[in-house]
Fold this sequence. Notes:
heterodimer, A: mainly alpha, 5 helices, 0% strand, globular, B: mainly alpha, two-stranded antiparallel sheet, 18 helices, membrane (chain A)
Amino acid sequence: MKKQTAFSKMILIGLVLIYLIAFKNFPYFNLILQAKVIAGVIFLLAVCLFSVSTRVMIAGCLLLLVFTGSLVLMGKESLAQTVGDMIYFLLLVGVIKKIKSESELA
Amino acid sequence: MNWLDLNPLAAGDWLYLFEETIRSFSFWPERWGYHYSGMGGPNYASGLVYFFTTTAKLFNSLGASWPLIERLVWFGPIFGLTLFSSFFLAKQLFTGKSLFYWLTPVLYFFNTYFLLLIDGGQLGVAFGYSLAPLILGFLVSLPKNHRWPRRLMIGLAFGLQILLEPRIFLLTLGTVLGYFILVAGAKKVYGLLLFWPLLLALTVNLFWLWPALTVKGGALPPDYGTAGWIGFLSFANFSGTLSLLHPNWPENIFGKTYLLRPEFLVLPVLAFSSLLFINYSRVSDLPAGKAGLTSLKAGKLNNSLINNKVILHFNLLALLGAFLAKGSNPPFGWIYLWLFDYLPGMKLFRDPTKFYFLVALSYSILIPHSLAKIYQLFFTKELIKK
């Protein structure tokens, strides 16, 4: 359980860092802001989000959603679209997981 | 300002009617008429057209001009009903004393989808949109109050929605069924409660539904059923639908779409934040020790919150609406095309933006709920961390 909490925190910190880097337009960010690299990293994060609690998963999705806003501001609309698609399916999984746990409680 | 004086209001699909035109209308429903195309033609949107022509003729015979009629019959009731019905739904769902439910009518009215419906003159759709929360509000309270006057009101509201916009009726019905399945646990009794209002709604519409379905020429023009329309009319992309941002906002020029505006991402972030508070909603969910230590009484906590399942229902509805409103655009655009070809009734949705209604309805409930919870978290310290 402790491992899972630490892992959740790591993911959240990772997401916040990505957001901050994007938001402040870190000088080297444009070098690494290749659509495939970012999409790959986000995909890996998305996979990791499956193994944490639903709440962390949803919080991660919301952070990623804010991140897509930064991408749009930086003119990376197509990348934002790719990230947005992943967020959507993660949110959907999160909602379904919540519904399942609610019906089990009932 | 044009809305307040008696200048005519006409834009997009909305018409201006001359006195002579109004006088030529019939009081009786017409399946075929010379108004519907140059040399005359079938009346496809029979219920809506009948309401349009009959009310125009009725008020004109009382001496009203078209600018007054359109305000009395269309714009006035739509504006009033949209605000009232969304407020009524919020009152049914938010059982506590939170003032945040006043935001529901604001969000339901002042969103890009509804504003462009009005701007584009799609007043039949706007009328259906304005009735939907009222019906949902009535149905939410139906298990508590299922007396005949309440069922009669639901039936008449459903009937008016079928008359004016059957597509929004189908979406409202889907929302209601989803609510009963997810929130109320799909009990048989709810099906029975819903049966009589639906029967009444269909019966009062038989005068135009029956000929529309049986008279040769079909209920819809022949090319409406082809999937080619979907690609043409799928203007919205996924980020836009999730942000409740109409693709033609702000100019509303048909076919001219715009890129995503990041400021609109605030709406889904706030709406889906409601999922983060779900486990805080019940004292019974708390570990035994914490539940005992808290100074909150169970009643107080339960009274200030919406049922968890209601929140989940509206979240699911928002996600479904956002997915369908983008039509055949990626990702998985083929799903919409497949549904259009094989799901009965889906042929009515060749314009996928109708599904924005589900997103607007959901966000107008979820966002005030999230804000209420955030307020509680930071200012009243009522929430207890698990």
